[in-house]
Amino acid sequence: MRVQLNLAPFACDYGDLWESVDLVVANRAELDIHFGTPDPRVAALRLFARGVRAVVATAGPGGAWWLEPERAFHVPAPRVAAVDTTAAGDVLAGVLAAELHRGAGPSDALRLAVHAASLAVTRPGAVPSIPSAAEIERLRRELAGGEP
Known about the structure:
5 helices; 5 strands
């Protein structure tokens, strides 16, 4: 089983929990609160030292970074007309977890998650902005080069 921790925007002591975490998802403000830096690379090194295996650092319209000790990559976000960013991070974290659970590799999983979050911000509200399973499937096909 994979353990994914989505950091909250307030400081707390996770203690020995870090060693059980496979993947941390956080935005740059949360990284700054928890690790004293908004730089994903520096924060990731601090997390790796605590036993975390991978970090996803989100940056809104700047996309997201996947960082592991042996590799790192960036997924740019598509340009959209943002209406409400309330659920963007939750959509990204949820789609990422679901895709990794399905067996997708990190690159494909993060790419779909970034695109799903980008779709969410084009709609008002939190829950109403969350893409449906059919919309996620359509995005998956489009990103794979298939028909919408």
